[in-house]
Amino acid sequence: MNQINQSGWKPGSPVPTEHGEQYPTVTGNKALMLEERLIFELGRRDTCGVDLPEPDPAAPNRLGKFARQQALNLPGLSEPETVRHYTRLSRQNYAIDLGLFPLGSCTMKHNPRLNEKVARMPGFADVHPLQPVDTVRGALGVINELAHWLIELTGMHGVAMTPKAGAHGELCGVLCIRAALEARGDARKVVLVPESAHGTNPATAAFAGYEVEDIPATPEGRVDLAALKARLGPDVAGVMITNPNTCGLFEREMKAISDAVHEVGGFVYCDGANFNAIMGRVRPGDLGIDAMHINLHKTFSTPHGGGGPGSGPVVLSEALCPYGPLPFTAKMPDGTIQLVEEENAAEHGHTETFGRMAAFHGQMGMFTRALTYILSHGADGLRQASGDAVLNANYLLRSLDDLFDAPFGDTGPCMHEALFSDHGFAEGMSTLDVAKGLIDEGFHPMTMYFPLVVHGSMLVEPTETESKAVLDQFITAMRSLGERAKAGDEALKTAPHHAPRARLDEAQAARKPVLAYSAEV
Ligand SMILES: *Cc1c(COP(=O)(O)O)cnc(C)c1O
């Protein structure tokens, strides 16, 4: 109240405020978008949303000295208050079901409702990983069928289904490489990673115990084959290459890269997170790749981020298959599907496994959704999806490259994502300003400052699921923001103005995060 009075505002008289608001409200709410306080500020100690029986004072204390002495300090809310708190917060969020999510490298595509319908069928939704194998033959059949499709689509020899994210899949692939090298008594130390790699690639190699060395990119944004060849030698365990790469370009020399690496006894890991650009058109197996993860939550339309868990199956070459993790499914000559675990691995000739990636079989709910997506599209539909994804990205690239600098725009069409830089912005204007301006225009920002090889990069991936009308609206917003960035519009530097929170001090937030609520603060 005070603040509003201090600003001199009277009902009906427009007063611009810090956030560009013409008509402040006494509640802080903006029409039906409600302001929300922290749950600890809302809660009261004397309230609880559930009725619990009073503990029996005569019951023996089985916690001994570990019994809690002080109050638990939980925020007490009634059930309706709790529901409203989280519903209000959810309305401040953005989601693929609300609008375009142009996050490059993330393939934020529509999650078809058919996937959800199938995943909720009781026979799929209610299976438990500890059920006797005889009672889950159908679920094993789903895993096996999906594995079959992934092998077919990639032209590889086998697949490890258990990794639970792309990065987890990378680790699985690199552990296979390490096991294969150890099996031949070859203690190689180095993994080569191009400059344009996704951050998870060097992180994975380092986590698996390797020294990571950079390979430079050519001015065209691709791996420098000559530099790679020059560095290859008997100490190189392998390379990790993203294809299509994070500049949105296909690595045309992939086969030559693989051949050169194999020649010195190394292995080729391909980061397949961008498979959405080439699905049904290029088989990584034909390019000499030994291991590649597939993000079911990107290419195969299963929910992403806050929407659900990821899933990162890894397809493997014949050379790496023997080292793949347990468990996996195997189709027997009589058509039954067996689960191969430690106790029967020898029967299946799988004695050199490096171990396990997960306690159980992987993300069953995601397998069901991804297989539904695959079967509802068919081979021709998947091929069309990748073509449409590339078409949409090129439509964005060519609708914006006269205004925004497109570093590799002259080298030909892009794949599934279009890359722009901040080159040509007015002094003091940055990629961050454009991203924050996009929020005001009702779009989730694109991927910013990645890949690192381009200054102030903006990586935009529309995916095939956006209509031309949506793309045109996005282009209109981007063109307006591009013009404002070039003109040095001061108002863009303080965007967003219409979001529930204005621009935050990101350095403060990163360096002095307040992670726990304390009433004393
Ligand atoms: C998303 C992504 C990853 C990591 O996948 P997660 O499922 O997020 O672990 C790796 N590489 C690239 C190129 C990606 O886009």
TrEMBL record:
Superkingdom of source: Bacteria
GO terms of molecular function: glycine dehydrogenase (decarboxylating) activity
Keyword Secreted listed: no
UniProt keywords, alphabetically: Oxidoreductase, Pyridoxal phosphate
Domain (Aminotransferase class V) ranges: 191-305
SUPFAM superfamilies xref list: PLP-dependent transferases
Domain Glycine dehydrogenase C-terminal: 386-485
A Pfam match: GcvP2_C
Record keyword Zinc-finger present: no
The protein, known as: glycine dehydrogenase (aminomethyl-transferring)
Gene: gcvPB
